[in-house]
Predict the structure.
Amino acid sequence: MVEEELPLLTLEEHLQDLKKRIIKSLLVFLLAILVSFAFSDNLYDFLARPLLQAMSNHTNTIERKLIFTGITEAFMTHMKLSLFVGFGISFPYFLSQFYGFIAPGLYKKEKKILLPFVVASFTLFILGLFIAYYFVAPLACQFFLTFENTLHFQNSLFPVLLEARVSEYLNSIIQLTLSFGLVFQLPIVLFSLSKLGWLKVESLIRYRRQAIIINFIIAAIITPPDVLSQISLALPMVVLYEFSIFLIKKL
């Protein structure tokens, strides 16, 4: 069997290729930001839907609104939203450029292994965003709105109602969705470390209890500061940890 030969490139050629790919990625990212900013109103309506739906379900007798208290807050919120969505749009292209850069140094067998990893990473990232937006965010909004109240004060009604700031809500929803997207990379990371010989499945099993505690600590750090979001992230992390053990054993 003839050993496969890889193309030999000089260090300068590698650096030139890397430079071109970085420039292309930045241009795509910039274009995605501009497109996102043009549709930022529609995008914000989409991200605000869990909160607005929860408000609608909570009560229909009170006029609801999102507010901003700083003169630049609304503009900066749209810019941050454009960066967030622009990154999401550009992410598949970033992965393709990463794969294209390292592919010349890989054998065909290694390419067949790496490509599914790239696809799986993107799929798990999107799955994490999907679960955070469609399941966790609505539950969190419903939970926080239960703290609204109408108090009796000197024979008059004194309402305690939520008037959310656009920047605070956007920060919370971005932090929540990105946390889920990144945490869903756990099987990819553990599986890769195992195949590289840096981590043994026996160690994952032996330190399972400690891993569960660490999962809850990480969830508490990277999610918004509320118990519901932290538990909602920690539980999938435990499931992904167990799935990683299963995956390593089977493959």
Q: What stands out?
A: The radius of gyration is 23 Å. Residues 8-48+70-105 form one domain.
